[in-house]
Amino acid sequence: MKYYRCTDAPIEIYGVEVIDPGQQIFWRLPDEESALVSDAVRGRSKSACGGRIRFRTDADSVSIRLSLHTLSVDICMPLPGSSGLDVYTGSGIHAKYRGYVAPGNYREENKITEKVIPLRFSGEAKEFRDVTLNLPRNERLADVTIGFPDDAEILAPTPYSCRDRICYYGSSITEGGCASRPGNAYTAMVSRWLDCDYVNFGFSGMAKGELPMADIIAKRDFSIFVYDYDHNAPNAEHLAATHEPFFRRIREQCPDLPVVMMSKPDFDGDPVGNTKRRDVIYQTYINARAAGDANVYFIDGESFFGTVGRDSCTIDNCHPNDLGFLRMAEQVWRVLSKIVK
After folding, report:
1. Which helix (H) or strand (E) holds 296?
2. CATH number at residue 304
3. Is this structure's pTM higher than 0.85?
4. Are residues 139 and 58 in the same domain?
5. Could you give the CA distance from residue 302 to residue 310 in angstroms, rounded to a whole number?
6. Which is it for strands 224-228 and 259-262: parallel, antiparallel or unpaired?
7. What phi and psi values does residue 333 have, to the nearest 5 degrees?
8. Fewer CB atoms < 10 Å away: N or C end of the chain?
């Protein structure tokens, strides 16, 4: 068995900006930049949520060692969702889920976990496969080490077939709460189906439409911007005071960037209040269209969970479970696939 750290060539890391293997740092934003938004965002940005490790190999299986700095209880999520990574082979709509690596419990010694993951199931031909590891949502990542059989070849991953790069900004739902594993977050599903790169700027409870965050997003090279921080706005008044200014700040710096505005999916718990919030978001969209901006899109969160089985789509009447995320992903994918084309 030969071992590669996730930072060793030809393995590649996506969706994480600050990478320092010596200091065991895998952050979504530089510290000094996130501090411009808020202390809360600064802390939350140090998780590797939405990050991916990618490579190509002819190995039938790999041994993956996951090392975490933190290991905290999330009462709404199983450990594979809150603290684990999951593994896919292939790309696009043909990608196949192969398994997960996660702590067995919350004991301190389980911050380091190793597990063998099959990359080829019975009856499948032996061949080179692209492999993607979706990194944990909640915890701060210390390292990932991958063990290959001695005779296996390891190559750089096949580039994403779609050259667009998506930015998602929003709440704990954007982060993937409460999917059973990271690959089942709507952001991960949509981007996997499109076979494109993405960055997850979901900040659980912390994303409140701060203008410094708009500046951070605007100066990066994104092809599509999706924002849905509705959940984190304390009320409709806060949303009204921040939503359109946030969009305008993005648009001033990125005049041609497609922008997708979404309202929250858990509409039924407070139809009156959530209608007010949705109306704020929709008004931002209408004002942009009236001003001649044809590169804006609106998705009504009330429609995400459909009509049958709506009450089966969340874990706590707020955060989507896997079914809820699947239904969200299907609708977001329809919109984004048209933008990509």
Report:
1. strand 296-299
2. 3.40.50.1110
3. yes
4. yes
5. 10
6. parallel
7. -60, -40
8. C
Q: 288 by DSSP, 3-state: which?
A: helix
DSSP-derived letter for residue 108 is G
Can you tell me the distance from the alpha carbon of 55 to that of 236, in angstroms, rounded to the nearest whole number? 44
Residues in the chain: 341
Question: CB under 8 Å to 301, separation ≥6 — which residues?
Answer: 228, 230, 262, 263, 264, 265, 266, 267, 274, 278
- Smallest Cα–Cα separation from 135: which of 21, 14, 315? 14
Nearest to 207 by CA among 313, 12, 10, 49: 49
Instruction: Determine the 3-state secondary structure of 86 from DSSP.
Output: strand
One-letter amino acid at 109 equals: E
What digits encode the pLDDT tens for the residues 292-331?
A: 999 999 999 999 999 999 999 999 999 999 999 999 999 9
Tokens of 68: 């975490």
State the Cα angle at 209 between 337 and 274, rounded to 5°.
75
Sole residue written with tokens 């739902």: 173
* Pair of tokens at residue 8: 């060793």
Give residues with Cβ within 8 angstroms of 229, minimum separation 6.
Answer: 169, 170, 171, 174, 207, 208, 209
313 domain-assigned: yes
Lookup: tokens for 263: 């309202």
The full DSSP string for 204-243 is TTT----HHHHHHHHTS--SEEEEEGGGGSSSHHHHHHHH
| pLDDT tens-digit series, residues 97-152 | 999 999 999 999 999 999 999 999 988 889 999 999 999 999 999 999 999 999 99
Whether 76 and 146 map to the same domain: the answer is yes
